[in-house]
Amino acid sequence: MSSYHVPVLLHESVDGLNMNPDGVYVDVTFGGGGHSREILNRLSSKGKLIAFDQDGDAKQNLFLDDKRFEFVPQNFEYLKNYCRLLGYQQVDGILADLGVSSHQFDEAHRGFSIRFDAELDMRMNCSGGQLTAKDIINTYSESDLHKIFGIYGEVKNAKTVAKTIVTARLNSPISHVEQLKGILFNLAPRAKQNQYFAQIFQALRITVNRELEVLQQFLEQSAQILKPNGRLVVISYHSLEDRLVKNFVLKGKFHGEAERDLYGNVLTPLVQVSRGAIVASDIEIQRNSRARSAKLRIAEKRN
Question: For the segment 143-156, what is each residue's pLDDT rounded down to a tens digit?
Fold first, then answer.
């Protein structure tokens, strides 16, 4: 498990669930099973854990001998449907550790990492029929590429990036990591190439996996299936994710101002438990560099 993925903010996130040992909990990003294992450690024999993961590689970490555990090999955009299919109209707590696992970054052929030369894939569900990063690079219009690099990657010269890609692909298709990096190398700020390419890859990965759209669906469904006083715990790794989580918790929506009743009270399904985001300690960051960008938010379903 430790070689597959080191769980970030493990105790802080599971503590945030404020667990009932006999309750029903959902880990929507099973991965290496680190958070799930800690949840199971705190459940009684009557408790239940449902875990989701669309990545087929995660199956190697399943707890096959634990009757309290149920695995759903699906994207967590189907959270509500599968929980109800399993007989649970409401649950006591939901945990999400967003982003890419250590395993996905380290598996060169998946194309997530700028460290390895591989085909530009980046699908979290390799059995799915969605477009790959290679498809997006070679088929999206210049204006669409400009949009995704500017919005999802927050790349400052996104317009130039899009034009450079469209020009380069006229000569031959762009299919591999090193090929894309070579095409864009002169556009990267000196001494910041790794950060720059990480932003490029983030934009492609978000687009391939519809990450922000799926996150919005997940947050709305979480508010619907949590029991009163049930907890939602989300760990995010970049500002786009964290902003969606923060806005939904504080405003009950992703954009604009919160709705209020006649007395001026904010109408939201959730209330924040942690004041602002919880971040990893210096000790954890030294042990696991991925924790550096992690932000943990905890919310509770209104009674």
Answer: 999 999 999 999 99
Q: Whole-structure pTM over 0.85, yes or no?
A: yes
Architecture of domain 131-209: Orthogonal Bundle (1.10)
> Where in the chain are the domains?
10-102+211-301, 131-209
Q: 15, 11, 81, 91: which is closest to 49 by C-alpha?
A: 91
Write down the pLDDT at residue 128: 67
CATH class of the 10-102+211-301 domain in this structure: alpha beta
The structure tokens listed for 266 are: 């904010």
Of 125-129, 171-175, 185-189, 268-272, the range with the lowest mean pLDDT is 125-129
